[in-house]
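Pasting as-is:
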Amino acid sequence: MIGGPLSDDSALNRSGSTRDATPRPAFDAETPLARLLAGNQRFVAGKPRFGHHVDAPGARTTQHRPWACVVGCLDSRVPPEAVLDQDFGSVVVVRTGGHVLDEAGIGSVEFAVSVFEVPLVLVLGHQYCGAVTSAVRALDGGDHPGGAVGRLVDDIAAAIDPTDDPAHRVDRAIDRHVARTVSVLSELASTRDRIAAGTLEIVGARYQIDTGRVTVLG
């Protein structure tokens, strides 16, 4: 069984464990993904189940027992809880520009995997990603942004193939960047053994802004 609750006032109990006597339903590595995709189907159909009301039961509980972690972009058009139609307490979300992960981002994923013991990490890229578009333009035009924004461009640059058809370069870079993020997360010390044991799956997906649909990649 996969467990690991957190209370609202303490991450660890006195024994150093986050487990308590309240069981959480056991999920295999594929069931959480099916639940997220089913939620996206409801979203696309215009029939979402969850409205995120503050007085909903999931918003007022002391138990935090998420069953998936979504790593996504900060783009305001792609709020994971909405496009995957999930209720309070279902998913933990890590969002940065172009889902580029620094130590804090990776640490957040490791926390979700090690403490919450989520069986799924979904890396969600998206159509019209501004961070990827900026990286492509920087490489094509030689106009590299300064400061921390340049860090985003440098990370994404490895996913850009200058031999791609210019008309499809951004879209292909988006998908490659998702695949690279999946690879990075899959090689963490905190994830490798769980993946090998079949208790964790790390999956890449793409959100189409034109249609609202999420498609699993690879």
